[in-house]
């Protein structure tokens, strides 16, 4: 065998012990960096940071965590500045109730209403006869009208307002002066009318006759509520209330480490935080908060960016991956900020564990956890007490990644949701117990809050929607999940069923290649289900002209290539790649599967027909273009595995003798020739991976084409005795 430096290099790299290389480095194929790409990436980072910070709550976040009845966990607290001790809302409400008894709303008296309504009454019944309305009735009615207007008539709505506010008295004014009058002395329109009918009964007059006169139309309010004066009076009374009950001076010691937080200490600490928030709300304070938020978000985003630069540049170079990561990473902080800003629901209802599930299914576990942890920290900036939130959600994300390593069945999502919910509840319970909370504590401050656990259960239920949402993400971003791959690997799909019927030899070849490639992928850590499904479809183009491929030709049949020139035969053989791409596109197979069709021969040569044509014309050097496949060389591990498995399986069928030596020689010769041809220079496969693939192919082919033992024949005499 002639000396070949490339094969020697291959042998050395596969067998000599070298320093361990980080597994992730295979995804960091160097790409040319330009100022344009740098500026584009920087612009994306700036836009992302701006989006997150824009929607963050701007009010001051608490930096202290304390409860009444619990020890103060920090060092001695000394007031850094003077601040008032603000009264609690309950204290302020009690004082408001006290001054509300002194509050008297203003009503303006309109004297002309009495004369107008009495005149209207007289005019309405001016022509009435004595039988219809006798003088005694007229005198009785007018006297009661004037009595009611003297006491004061207010509208029914105003009476309801006074009763609702428990108002005891009002102030009635006309011009400048105002007099106080108890509400009990006033008439509403309804009360004035009922009082007239009641007095009529006492005077022996007919209530029915008075009712038919519709006298309530002449009882109109002569006291009108003055909203402006009343509100001014209420504000003046409220101004007498002091919002604080004392002052804390700078340098004053409030509480020391280990002391129990009393109601008074709690009120002082709350007042300090309130005053600190007021300072933060000032223009200078707002700028400080904004700067802190920008730095916080920027550092987290840069941490993610450097992770991808160092370990997964293939994601950065893939627009689909970048878009998916940006959308998912921005969605959860924005949703968290929205709930916190509007105080709608607890943030624990949001199924944060859905994020690592999606990234794990479409990318990898390391990326899933890093992005999940970064997203949780971006969400935590909106919360008052983020410790429990960060730890609980990080544990939930880890459980989701561990339990969903390969999503291929719907039941896996259900099991993951149960595991995430159970572990989240258990972990949060441990935090409650650490903080001293118990199940049956009489004090609500030391009793476990079960509402959080209900929210975690709801979050677990919402996690089940990851399955239908995954299909939506596949369509939006062009990804392909293992669930889709499993569905496509069903041999009852239209393309595979047609392949098995029209080209049964090719179908059997594809099945064998699928098994070989999947075993190699499992050994080297590639995507097993992906290469298995891609192998099933890689030769579907042979259904167009199945008889021109040897695996579909019956033994002893006429070879149709005998009637064609080498160029025509090569065109038909090469055409199965284009035909396969056309059929796959017509069936709307995912792009990742169509790539297996176009790369399984790479930019290789149909050597048999090229050599035949060259031998027919030895005097001229023929061009290789008519005999070269139009596809690209493999760009992923899985595509490289398929190329090797396809060539090895097809060539193994032509062996005259299946021995360990012949199979090993065949496998090494074919794969070494592919390495020499440079088919794998564009994909992240190592020499160690190639050596592993060789070993797997040798073992599997020996099992498939094992030498059968020869059964002994019976001697004729023994056979006759048995008969």
What does the model show?
The protein is mainly alpha-helical and 723 residues long. The chain contains 30 helices and 10 strands. The strands form 4 sheets. It has a 4-stranded mixed beta sheet with strand order 6-5-3-8. It has a two-stranded antiparallel ribbon with strand order 1-10.
Give a nutshell description of this structure:
The protein has 723 residues and is mostly helical. Helices cover 59% and strands 5% of the residues.
> How much of the sequence is in beta strands?
under 5%
What is the correct CATH architecture of one domain? Orthogonal Bundle
For the sheet with most strands, the description reads:
4 strands, mixed
* The CATH topology of one domain: Hypothetical protein af1432
Q: Which helices and strands appear, and what pairs or packs with what?
A:
Elements: H1 5-15, H2 35-54, E1 77-78, E2 83-86, H3 89-100, E3 106-109, H4 112-124, H5 135-151, E4 153-154, H6 156-164, E5 169-173, E6 178-182, E7 187-188, H7 189-202, H8 207-211, E8 223-225, H9 227-239, E9 244-248, E10 253-255, H10 263-281, H11 283-311, H12 313-316, H13 319-342, H14 354-362, H15 365-380, H16 386-403, H17 410-434, H18 450-462, H19 466-477, H20 482-488, H21 494-502, H22 504-524, H23 528-537, H24 566-586, H25 591-599, H26 607-616, H27 637-652, H28 660-676, H29 687-704, H30 716-722
Helix pairs in contact: 2-11, 4-5, 11-15, 13-15, 14-15, 14-16, 15-16, 16-17, 17-18, 21-22, 22-23, 22-27, 22-29, 23-25, 23-27, 24-25, 24-26, 27-28, 27-29, 28-29
